[in-house]
Amino acid sequence: MKKIKVAVSGANGKMGREVVKAVTGENNLLLVGAVDRKFVGQDIGDVVGIKPTGVLIKDDLKEMLISCQPDVVVDFTFPGIVFENSKTILASGTHVVVGTTGLMENQLKELEILAKEKGVGILVAPNFALGAILMMKFSQMAAKFLPHVEIIEFHHDGKLDSPSGTAIKTAQLINEVRESLPPDGRQFYEKVIHARGADLEGVKLHSVRLPGMVAHQEVIFGGQGQFLTIRHDSINRESFMPGVIMAINKITGTTGLIYGLEKLMNFDN
Known about the structure:
The protein is of the alpha/beta class. It has 2 domains: 4-124 and 237-264, 3-Layer(aba) Sandwich (Rossmann fold); 130-234, Dihydrodipicolinate Reductase, domain 2 (2-Layer Sandwich). It is 32% helix and 25% strand. The chain has helices at residues 14-24, 44-48, 61-68, 82-91, 105-118, 130-143, 165-177, 241-251, and strands at 4-9, 29-35, 57-58, 72-75, 95-98, 121-124, 148-155, 198-200, 203-209, 215-223, 226-234, 256-259. It has a 7-stranded parallel beta sheet with strand order 3-2-1-4-5-6-12, sandwiched between helices. The chain is elongated.
């Protein structure tokens, strides 16, 4: 069986470390590369606390792509560099799985064009937890019947962007199916600006950043004499790994850009 060769960009980060562990635990995957700014030259296995892998950390993404020739690169880096990283990976003719948030709509379009030109696939996923994908799917189903909805997302205080990609994606899915609400003529007054949260086409989004949290989201629907709450909690970063492994296995058979892990999931069977 031919193994899929995988490299991890941001390999020493909290998510990158989990990806390294997950990839090395899969029989059909082969870890061939690791990129990070720290521990350059050291075996990534030693750095993340598993047995040595023979893969030494490099600090140059382009050099790693040339020397290691991965089939897929998994990127968990920073919002400020993920776009350039993705362009570099795609330009080399390599598939990419992006877990880093912060890509803008115009950047996604540019990456889609480049991926098609190179005949490779790129998956950009706001969330890799399968439970979170189901939470978004269930929220979209509920929005057809309960159009009044607000989203509260909770993350650790090290998360730099807000709202989260998951919250934005959830709001987009809801807006695809819910009926337009009639205009509300009441004059609301915010004593503190944005006290009612950000607004994405009528869906209010609230972001909480506190120590001790990982990734959590509540989607709250209000109706006559009732409300419905759909909540998902990731209590550790291992929760994202089944989704990452799924993405690695499926991205090699695609061309162009896929936004959202749910596009690779079969909800019909």
